[in-house]
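Troubleshooting entry. The earlier prediction with coproporphyrinogen I gave an output that would not parse, so I re-checked the input for stray whitespace and re-submitted. Clean input:
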Amino acid sequence: MSNLNKILKNKNLCKSVWFMRQAGRYLPEFRKIRNENKNFVELCLNSEISSEISLQPIKRFDLDSAIIFSDILMVPYALGQEVTFIKNKSPKLSEFNFKKFRNNNEKEFSKKLDPVYKAINITRKRLDIKKSLISFVGAPWTLLIYMLDLKKDNNKINTSKLNKNKLLIDQILNDLTQYLRLHIKNQINAGADVVQIFDSWSGLIPNENLTKFSYSPNSELVKFCKTYNVPSICFPKGLKENYETFNNLVKPDGINLDYEIDPLWAKKKLKDVVIQGGMDPKVLYKSSIKIHREATKYIQAFKDTPYIFNLGHGLLPETDPDKVDKLIKFYRNF
Ligand code: 1CP
């Protein structure tokens, strides 16, 4: 069993490090492939290249886990929305059509995403048995934000749009959760060892809607992973002190801290869960001394509990890969 699975399943005190967005634009070897493949969706659907990209950070840094190269927006793509990735901008989706959405079926959905499952299958075969292969989904709320274009800016949602479509949204969330279960099942069957559930925009959920948009759907997906005996890690980014309620209600195997959460607070409040990450990815823009000081805060806080070293959000595109290398070595030597 890999270290990541030993920590998540048996609560072992072994070491494990990987980074969100470890396969991405900060790596020159990724940028080279990206320049030759202008269409991002097509790139995600090229199993051979997707597998190669997933393994790039493993080859370079010998990280403990690989995350499959894909995107959370491949689900809306498979459900019929056009998805365009524009450099340095939020991805854009074509207008949502409720009738078209309801006309989807599971067979077509799985078929459209089959290249992703193939990529998982070949990557699992190429990856050292001692390393985990992480698969992922976007949580329903975070996908809804993109599918219905609900974001005004990075701190605000269009509440009138949300309130105007209440009944419709309940139905969409419900259907979407079923398709996410299927996507998780297909990824597990293809060879994924762990599932990370990204709820990157949960900080934008109005307080009175937390149960409906965050706790319930995440809970359903975590329970679903448990039926396969595959551990899940939730990332309810931006929930602040509600991380505690989230953890008590959703009960994931692992929880990824965002950079706003104080590690000592988390240690006290988040029970019966393995903590992952937390350090602000912007710290990697700073000097080695500052990076080590910040990393020490997390390593010290969690030194006598199972802990997965990672960040409080994804690696930023301007990050220097040498600093990532040094951080990994610092963590391993600690
Ligand atoms: O190493 C990896 O993690 C690679 C696989 C991966 C994952 C797990 C990618 C590739 N995207 C994701 C998850 C993802 N995608 C999330 C959840 C995690 C997070 O919050 O970062 C989200 C919200 C998205 C949506 C998305 N896709 C964004 C965010 C935009 C926004 O609204 O702020 C962006 C920029 C993308 C494009 C994308 N996805 C992945 C890469 C490498 C890129 C860059 C594409 C490029 O080269 O232009």
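This one parsed fine. The domain at 3-333 is CATH 3.20.20.210 (TIM Barrel).
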